[in-house]
UniProtKB/TrEMBL annotation:
InterPro entries: DUF2807
PROSITE patterns hit by this protein: PROKAR_LIPOPROTEIN (PS51257)
Naturally occurring in which organism (per UniProt): Dokdonia sinensis
Keyword Membrane applies: no
Signal peptide: 1-22
Alphabetic keyword roster: Signal
Ranges of residues in domain Putative auto-transporter adhesin head GIN: 45-237
The keyword Amino-acid biosynthesis belongs to this UniProt entry's keyword annotation: no
Name the record gives this protein: DUF2807 domain-containing protein
Pfam families: DUF2807
Amino acid sequence: MNLRLKICVLVFLLLTIVSCNTEDTLTCLKTTGDEISETYDLESFDKIIVYERIQLIVKDAPEVSVRLETGENLLEDMEVFVEDGVLNVRNNGACNLFRDYDYSKVYVSAPNLTEIRNSSGFTVLSDGVIGWENLALISDDLIEEDFFHKDGDFRMTLDSESVLIQCNGLSNYFLDGSIENLDINLLEGDSRLPLEDLIVQNVIVNHTGTNDIIIAPLQSITGELRSTGNLILKNTPPVVEVDELFTGRVIFD
């Protein structure tokens, strides 16, 4: 390679690297840029789907607000919209040669939500105690196989009447607070539910997974163990009616 060609290549590489710090750069080459906050005025919703590469933080509050924190150069790759009563949050910037994945966060406050689907790969967090009456926490791909990610965790403090946990992958649920009625559907996978710090009255369990549920129900627990995962009871309620249909066992601890 002659000297002139070498100089041209070096100049091209230098210009490419310098241009990485703008929002107009190809997604793969973008750096994050300065942190910015974008607030969205949206139509009403009572459900959320958060897709890959965005962390969701939810708060029980009288007024609805949706705020995205991301890098200035990444904002145009973000989609935040409501469709059929569902808040969808997407990060379309999949390629990241010059930045970290775990940068963007969305903060959602609402007086009531009924469903959160975590397809992000990150942990859904609660900011304070969540007092929504009926809530489903979902991490599965039953709607469309392999379309949704199913390895993002939930770490939340709840004060709810009825809660549904439904997953068929690797998501773990770290819940505390108080729930009257808890419905657990572990449809397959290796999800772990260390719920011993949760105050829960009544539990229905359908366990087809390979990991353990650890829980301390106060009034009743009913259901079925259909795989190798165990049900570890930290308290013995008056009603324990759980069928052991495979190698998973009810363990009184």
